[in-house]
Amino acid sequence: MNARQTAPFIGMGVLMIAVQVVAIFLTPLMLGAGYEAFEDPESAANPLYFIVILLIFTGVLLWLIKRGKDVVIKAIIALSILFIFGYIYSALFLALLGSTLLMWALTIFATVASGALLYVYPEWYVIDILGVLICGGAAAIFGISLTILPVLLLLVVLAVYDAISVYRTKHMVDLAESVISMKTPILVVVPKSRSYSYIKDGVELSEEKEERGAYIMGMGDLIMPNILVISSLAFLSGAPVILGLPLPTIGAMAGTLCGLAALLWFVSGGKPQAGLPLLNGGAITGFLILCALTGTWGWIPGM
Question: How far apart are alpha carbons 73 and 62 in whole angstroms?
């Protein structure tokens, strides 16, 4: 590959690293605000609740797509995005200003402004910048809500589900094509050329790879493996630390990037690929390798 061909793949790596950095930055703010999603982060039932909610949400979207309810789908996705923005900005302003009227006013303004910008001007760089914030915030919320063992269980189940939904039932491909055609901002976009415009050109998964103006990645692929990064940061104890990060956390970050590199290699073939088997697998492998090298097994009961 020449420099022009490799630039989009480097861009994907930069977005993944940006999500990790944002999630790490937001983690103490989310903890300080008490924004854990589950009351008991150690419960093995939490991943099951997560999967059930995901299946229901996916099923509802597919049902609406078959009935041509595009407006309803856009409204659901918009509300979900606003919900995440609200958590992120409230945690940030709460840390800066405390629980004051100004804090809530700034939270509401920033939330509405960010959501409006995404829908009024959904150019690729707007989607990517705000998408990194959304993914980092979501990873931080779920990472502080689940201890390491439930996260590992969740990532394995999600990887299996993603593979089945892309390669066997293919309903995730149908869902992706529909939300992309609506230009809903639940993905990140890396253009192949400077002249590309997501607003004007869009992206069609059915196109041949040479015809596509950009590479895309769903936000779920950026969020899920980084839940392990944040969980290990929040709950791991006794591990050697570099730059404020436990080494197994760094291993999960590096493993995610290795999984992304492998995923991009497969994506270069032109067909839609299930991202989570490689991304989650990379995060888990990197985490476990560094746990083994540092002898950090305290997160396993009885060890």
Answer: 9
Alpha carbon distance 61, 175 (integer Å): 8
Q: Report helix, strand or coil for 74.
A: helix
pLDDT band at 233 (very low <50, low <70, confident <90, very high): very high
Per-residue pLDDT, 293: 96
Neighbours of 52 (CB within 10 A): 10
Q: What distance separates the 2 farthest-apart alpha carbons in the chain? A: 57
Task: Please tell me the number of Cα atoms within 13 Å of 297 on its side-chain side.
Answer: 7
123 Ramachandran zone, left/alpha/beta (phi>0; psi -120 to 50): beta
Report the share of the chain in percent with pLDDT over 70: 94
Domain residue limits, the chain: 3-220
Distance CA 54, CA 52 (A): 5
DSSP per residue, 122-178: --HHHHHHHHHHHHHHHHHHHHTTS-HHHHHHHHHHHHHHHHIIIIIS-HHHHHHHH
Provide the 8-state DSSP code for 247: H
> pLDDT tens for residues 263-290?
988 877 666 778 999 999 999 999 999 9
- Candidates 176, 131, 178; CA nearest to 23 is 131
